[in-house]
User: Fold these one by one.
Assistant:
Number 1:
Amino acid sequence: MAIHYGADTVYLGGKAFSLRQYSSNFDTPELKAAIGLAHRHGVKVYVACNIFPRNSQLSEIKDFLVYLEQIGPDGVIVADPGILDLARTSAPGLPLHLSTQTNTTNLAAARFWRNNGVRRINVARELNLEEIRTLARETGLEIEVFVHGAMCIAYSGRCLLSNFMAGRDSNQGRCCYPCRWKYAVVEETRPGQYQPIREDSGGTYIFHSKDLCMLEYLPDLIGADVHSPKIEGRM
């Protein structure tokens, strides 16, 4: 469907090691077939291998990277430095792309990743246009920017709630800890009926922000030398 509707690149994942484990995804023969189909239509394929693995997964990840090198995707998307190092040593023919999960926000970090074999960086989503333009023009890297899709609130301390609610950047040491405040929710057809947010036997339920929509800013991103606007949609 992505090829049919005009994508010039498709990103996808195998049955393991990407951040969309509940998507149907591709087993190893299907990965090979998908890459072949895309290449016959002049479309590139990037394979996500962007989990943050535990020790027990490293051997399987190495085998997966070696297999990817054999079937020839146009890039592998990684986030963890250990996976990046495994790819460089075990599958040196794989072009390396850095996931937005790595939170690249500055020139020094971008140059570090470039010096460690990365060709393309999907930049952190909190960057403004001028910061994106600077990375594109001063690093020699290909720059990719999400223009549609989910905006995660937090990963392992990288949280945006404080930024949104109080204008205090938690990633700059100014967090006001809104995660510790007390909340209640109101369903839109029941105004005034406040339901507490709490953990129960079924789990804890945390809200997601509205999806990113950058349609009106696409000309600005193109003008900032962004190589690839990326559309999320695997789930």
Number 2:
Amino acid sequence: MNNEEGNVLKINIYGTEYPIRGATDTEYIRRVAEFVDSKMRDIDQSTSVKSSLKVAILAAINIADELFREREEKRGLIQGFEEKISNLSTLINENLKE
């Protein structure tokens, strides 16, 4: 199914069907929808909240938390790599001068 041709993918999240049109491939959209559905169902089973809006908000907070943690980890890794590259560059330059 090619979304650029105007096809619509129907996904189901937490018991509600949504028509989705996107510029990316349908399998990716399905995976994202399954992830969101899974988060909402996890929240539903782990709390006494039964409002679908509140479940969606709690799932969104949970997903945002995961995103922020991943970004922070990525920043830390990049900073560590940059420091190592700088140290290696310094060592190489020192050895080239000898």
Number 3:
Amino acid sequence: MAIDKVHEYLKKWGVDKDILEFETSSATVELAAQTLGIEPARIAKTICFKNGESAMLIVTAGDAKTDNRKFKDEFGFKAKMLTPDETLEFTGHAVGGVCPFGLENNIPVFLDESLKRFETVYPACGSSNSAIKLTCQELDKYSLNKKWVNVGKGWELT
């Protein structure tokens, strides 16, 4: 199971014990926020994009949408999300539990500036009923973030 892989991955920092598992689904931003009792924006959603023949992940705040112009300016190609099957193939995580931890393949992870307005955020942990509370500094470290980017839109208004 992917959550087991995430547990193993996060052990190296001693935070695997901090993974939260729920009786209810946290597969969407709304469900995760409801389950955790927090505002949806604090959910750190991981989006999978094609990157040539490979893939890449961008983690954004729950209220951010991808700005296609900013994405192309940053990466030099058009944003195209992976299918659920491709997501599972490249990350080892099914849609609803995708996270930047314990990835199946060595694909780059980028964190979006939309996250920085929060003291703590909650990314998933490999299953549709898990999360972990992290500071942005911890998320940066544990995700092996390549770089902070600004490819989101819609969140500046909140």
